[in-house]
């Protein structure tokens, strides 16, 4: 949002400067805008009319602010990245070895996943917010 506001202010500043200066290639001597026309009388026609300048300046001002914003804040973020904490380890799911007939899984962070298919148990997950999975076995389940 801040990027849009700064780009808008830069755009309005550029438009105000052009309207105050009234360059000869955009305006007639009496202050009226020149019409768009290539290869016509340069007293009444121009290659760069005000409306074309306004469109190009809008795009250019946003691009300039985006480049400056990315350069400045990208530099700041690269300096602060070294202070970010390391991500928490993800628990690994293993089958419940206490009961071979049970399809419930338990969390054990010291072991690897047993090859097979796991499915999210939405009912158990919803109660306490911790994801619970059901171990389906080594073969692909039939759907």
Write the layout of secondary structure elements.
Blueprint: H1 2-21, E1 35-36, E2 45-46, H2 50-80, E3 93-95, E4 105-107, E5 117-120, H3 122-128, E6 133-137
Parallel strand pairs: 1-2
Antiparallel strand pairs: 3-4, 5-6
Helix pairs in contact: 1-2
Describe the structure.
The chain has 143 residues and is α+β, with helices and mostly antiparallel strands. It is 41% helix and 13% strand. The chain contains 3 helices and 6 strands, in the order αββαβββαβ. The protein has a two-stranded parallel ribbon. Helix 1 (2-21) runs antiparallel to helix 2 (50-80). The longest helix has 31 residues, at 50-80. The two termini are 46 Å apart.
Task: Describe what is shown at a glance.
Helix content is 41%, strand content 13%. With 143 residues, it is an alpha+beta fold.
Largest sheet: 2 strands, parallel
Q: Structural class, from helix and strand content?
A: alpha+beta
Question: Uncertain spans, ≥5 residues at pLDDT below 50?
Answer: 99-111
Number of strands: 6
């Amino acid at each position: 949002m801040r990027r849009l506001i700064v780009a808008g202010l830069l755009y309005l500043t550029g438009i105000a400067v052009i309207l105050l200066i009234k360059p000869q290639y955009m305006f007639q001597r009496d202050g009226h805008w020149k019409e768009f026309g290539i290869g016509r009388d340069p007293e009444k026609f121009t290659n760069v009319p005000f409306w074309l300048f306004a469109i190009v300046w809008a795009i250019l001002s946003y691009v300039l602010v985006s480049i400056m914003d990315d350069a400045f804040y990208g530099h700041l973020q690269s300096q602060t990245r070294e202070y970010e904490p390391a991500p928490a380890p993800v628990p690994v799911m293993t089958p419940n070895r206490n009961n071979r007939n049970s399809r419930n899984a338990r969390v054990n962070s010291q072991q690897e996943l047993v090859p097979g298919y796991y499915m999210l148990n939405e009912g158990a997950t919803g109660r306490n917010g911790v994801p619970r999975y059901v171990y389906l076995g080594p073969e692909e389940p039939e759907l």
